[in-house]
Every structure is written in C-alpha cells, then in structure tokens.
Amino acid sequence: MSVYYKPLFRKFVKKQTRPFQLVIEDEVDKITLKPDMGEAKKSDLAGLRVHKFSHKRQKFMIAYGLQDADIVFFKIGSHENFYRELKKYLREVGL
C-alpha cells in the first residue's frame, strides 16, 4: 500500500512546529495501518474519509481517500470551515 500527499496537505504540515509534525505523522501511521478508521463521507464528499484527532486541546481533521490499494491524503486542518475548504479544493483540482 502506497501513501500519497496532496500539495494542500504537505503545505499545512510544513508550516507546523516539529512536535505537531510528529503528532501528524503518528496519526497518518494510524490511518495507514487501519484505513477504515475515519468516518466515511456522503454526498459531495463521497469516497473520502475524515479522521479527527486533538492536539493541545484543539481538534483537527484529516481528509483522505482510498484509491485502489493506495491512500491519498487531501487536507488537514482545524474544524473551522474544514468541509467548505475541502469541497473548494476538490473542485479546483477536478475531483
């Protein structure tokens, strides 16, 4: 199983502090081991899953999808406007 990161995901991670990057890496590893752990989305976001986690009492979400035998990480961010920004991003890239 291969893991791919979209530019939006990479950009967010790159801007974070090293301790938070390590937390994100742990969450990505959890998802890689158990891809069905995230909540399956419906409607506009069908085919995507969202995994929620907390860091320093703030909630974050990771949007990812399973494509064939691969996992593609699309977006990570705080809950505020997460779904709106995710839909906008998916429209821009044509998914």
| Total strands | 5
Class of secondary structure makeup: alpha+beta
Broad CATH class: Alpha Beta
Structural domains: how many: 1
User: What gross morphology would you assign?
Assistant: globular
Gyration radius, rounded: 13 Å
Helical content, roughly? 25-40%
Features:
Type II toxin-antitoxin system RelE/ParE family toxin, alpha+beta, YaeB-like fold, five-stranded mixed beta sheet, 3 helices, 95 residues, ParE-like_toxin
SSE topology sketch:
Blueprint: E1 3-5, H1 7-14, H2 18-33, E2 39-40, E3 48-55, E4 58-67, E5 70-78, H3 82-93
Notes on the protein architecture:
The chain is of the alpha+beta class and 95 residues long. The chain has one domain: RelE-like (YaeB-like fold). Helix content is 38%, strand content 34%. It contains three helices and five strands, in the order βααββββα. The chain has helices at 7-14, 18-33, 82-93; strands at residues 3-5, 39-40, 48-55, 58-67, 70-78. Strands 1-5-4-3-2 form a five-stranded mixed β-sheet. β2 (39-40) and β3 form a beta hairpin. It is globular and about 35 Å long. The chain starts with a strand and ends with a helix. This is Type II toxin-antitoxin system RelE/ParE family toxin.
Give a brief outline of the structure.
This is Type II toxin-antitoxin system RelE/ParE family toxin. The chain is of the alpha+beta class. The chain has one domain: YaeB-like fold (2-Layer Sandwich).
